[in-house]
Write a structure and sequence with these properties.
Chain A has 304 residues and is an alpha/beta fold. The first copy, chain A, folds into two domains: 189 residues, Rossmann fold (3-Layer(aba) Sandwich); 103 residues, 6-phosphogluconate dehydrogenase C-terminal like domain (6-phosphogluconate dehydrogenase C-terminal fold), CATH 1.10.3660. Chain A is built from twelve helices and eight strands. The first copy, chain A, has an eight-stranded mixed beta sheet with strand order 3-2-1-4-5-6-7-8, sandwiched between helices. In chain A, strand 5, helix 6 and strand 6 form a beta-alpha-beta unit. In chain A, helix 5 runs parallel beside helix 6 and helix 8 crosses helix 11. The longest helix of chain A is centred in the last third of the chain and has 28 residues. Chain A is elongated and about 70 Å long. The first copy, chain A, starts with 8 loop residues before the first helix and ends in a 6-residue tail after the last helix. At the A-B interface, helix 8, helix 9, helix 10, helix 11 and helix 12 of A face helix 8, helix 9, helix 10, helix 11 and helix 12 of B.
């Protein structure tokens, strides 16, 4: 993990950024680039003219087009960087569409997808030049949806995990894409797609599943009327977009199932300790978790 | 559930409040009474003179004494209200001590305990006049400990669950104790001790257990380095005092085990749906939880 961009290779060598999908994340990327005085052209690609118009009015894109082909054919002298910022379920189709474009120069591709193994495989299977794709997971966002909630500082201080592994390893593409995410204010780290998926299953997907289950259970058993701010905070993530999370649970199935099994084993152990009324073991377990969390907090939590 | 106190029977008829345990909750009660211009005497009872001195310097109590006997023997003309604000594990001993006092008038008792079945049973078993005890769970607090973190507004807007059931049903005691908690700014609701314990197991104890398990698992698997603010919020409660929570898991064992089993059944169902790759069922499940949570938020979350 390194500190912020110093080289500026992205700003110096990319003269067109094309954002596919101008929702919360896509529009925030555009706003942030503008705020950081990026001099190149920012193009939005979307299926609906209305969303593109909103993004353009907000100043997130210079122009909106309805297909990747149109974006690819705009005149440029330097590198073209394409960012996939649509729902996970649409990625394979976009890779196929990208592969069908007549190349007019060098095009690098990155993305904002929350899972990586499936996406990197789809890139490898469908892109004509899969080594020009550098998978990324900018750990930023909110429960809010759509370009009207976009913010130039959405990525500031957050962690972006890059997965330039396997066939996805062009060194120049990696340099440009890494600098791009750092330009948005993020720290970057590299993982394999599988390692990424395993880690985020534990710190994001499993917590989401448990939050949703807790709400579901409390609702069924009529307990929400006595729930307070503690429960609200614990379950905040359960208000996330169900479609986004369906895609995540579907594309990261294997790692999520493993995380559920690990949690389930721990829950069974804890159940036994409580059933035994083993006060010392209950204390030791609670104390260990508190220490681990407090230690983590002192080390500084990623702001995203 | 009713709105705030109007009758003022507490302020009119209680001329001594004795707070056993002047930690965060006990000291906050004293500060709040003073802020609301309570005219009676506020006495703190503690094992350590130092803690009492801090509470007195903060203005949370008028005087501190080292035993309930001393507090009971102070001269008064009206009703004496005792509030047990010590760790759950100490309650039975305090009930025995209270029972051994020579009564110098009418003394009502309430408490701040997070579990109620065990406490109400201990009151019934040990107090000389158990019907003068009205169990209470003011749903307020924070991860912070000790009188220096006390706040006059700690209880404002929160829900206080009263459990005046079974043998604990003196109607006058209930009126005074209910008005006392409303005077602190709380809404009140009545439940049986068993119903209370079942509900808080679902919205507080199970979430705490899961938060601790999630931290433990993420720590073991080296995933905390990529965790961000979402994980921080979800696991905030896992930084609570391990001793307080050991008492809770121990005294509310049965309801906690039932909550764990209910959650475990739901987790198994969810695991199957994800393993099957049943996209529609995953979506329906996420959507149901989101709807329940969003509906709950629109109805107004207890501010505590």
């Amino acid at each position: 993990m390194d500190s912020q961009s110093e080289s500026g290779v992205f700003a110096a060598q990319v003269d067109q950024v094309t954002i596919i999908g101008t929702g919360l994340l896509g529009a925030s990327i555009g706003l942030c680039l503008r705020q950081r005085n990026y001099a190149g052209r920012i193009v939005g690609v979307g299926r609906r003219q209305e969303t593109l118009d909103i993004a353009q009015k907000l100043g997130a894109i210079d122009q909106g087009v309805l297909s990747i082909h149109e974006a690819e054919q705009l005149p440029r002298d330097q590198i073209h960087l394409v960012i996939l910022a649509t729902p996970l379920g649409s990625f394979a189709d976009y890779f196929i569409e990208l592969a069908s474009c007549q190349p007019t120069g060098v095009t690098f591709i990155t993305d904002v997808g929350s899972t990586k193994t499936d996406i990197c495989k789809a890139a490898a299977d469908n892109l004509e030049f899969p080594h020009l794709f550098i998978g990324a997971h900018p750990m930023a966002g909110s429960e809010a949806q759509g370009p009207v909630h976009a913010r130039a500082d959405l990525f500031q201080g957050g962690l972006c995990i890059l997965t330039p592994s396997g066939t996805n390893g062009d060194i120049y593409a990696k340099e440009i894409v890494t600098d791009f995410w750092r330009t948005l204010g993020m720290r970057t780290a590299e993982k394999t797609p599988e390692e990424h998926d395993r880690l985020v299953a534990l710190i994001s997907h499993l917590p989401h599943a448990l939050a949703s289950l807790m709400v579901d259970l409390a609702d069924e058993r009529k307990a929400l009327s006595v729930a307070a701010t503690g429960f609200r905070d614990t379950t905040r993530i359960a208000s996330g977009d169900p479609q986004v999370w369906t895609d995540i649970f579907t594309t990261n199935r294997q790692a999520v199932l493993e995380a559920i099994d690990l949690l389930d084993n721990k829950l069974a152990e804890l159940r036994q300790v409580i059933a035994d009324g083993d006060v010392e073991k209950v204390f030791a377990w609670l104390d260990k978790a508190k220490s681990a969390r407090d230690q983590w907090l002192t080390e500084g939590v990623t702001e995203a």
